[in-house]
What we know:
Low-confidence stretches: none
Oligomer: single chain
Order of helices and strands: HHHHHHHHHHHHHH
Shape: globular
Radius of gyration: 19 Å
Helix content: 55-70%
Mean pLDDT: 87
Distance between the termini: 66 Å
Amino acid sequence: MSASCHFAHAQARLQARYADLPAEADWQRLVAARDIATYLEEARAGALRHWVKGFSGESDYHDLERGLRAQLNDSVDLVVRLFPAPWQSAFDWWRWLPTLALLEHLALGHDMPLWVLHDERLVRLLDSEGEIDRSALRAAGADSLIDPRAIHRAGGIGALWHQQWVQRWPRCDTRAIARMHELATLFRTHLDAYRRSPPDRAWTVRQVLRERLRQLFHLRLLQPAAGFIYLGLITVDLERLRRALIDRLLFRAEIP
């Protein structure tokens, strides 16, 4: 029997969450904040308030990174709860996106960064000696993400993550799966464009992706793609917030 593709309850909840996402005007209102404390104070009065409530003017780089990863993880938790069980593994796989750079670092034989010990979710993947616990990764279905051969065969850890994401899609009606493949192609195309772009064009490329995702969200109602489109929007917005906060953190560090 094919996996359930009826998502009326999930769609209603996602539409409510989508309506709460920051608009461009919300971001522009914060541009003038020169330091992180001012930015956070202003953000708490607007659409970004839920994402910045755990930060303060004294937050350091690792606090920001850890907190933003947690925000994405919370969004994945929400979507996993909303969608039928056959799709939950594919949604759950999204959790690994923020840690791909770390896992690739480990796959290349580098030492575990000390900051991992302060991340509640990541520390559960370590053994008693503070090294990556392959059995824990295997239990999570992610052990291939630290396998250099698998990464090489796939053409990079991002491509490997993508392959395994597609493998987690359940059997469903052909139209829904076709829409999923269209979305997967959009993500791959964006990643290629992002990699080729100079630093001063990086956010422009992200804006193009966000606008396309925004359009697709309204076109993919009652389909599994809507959940991944929502997570894509969350990921892009959190990356924008990360850039804004870290820029202002560095500005604070330059003050004598």
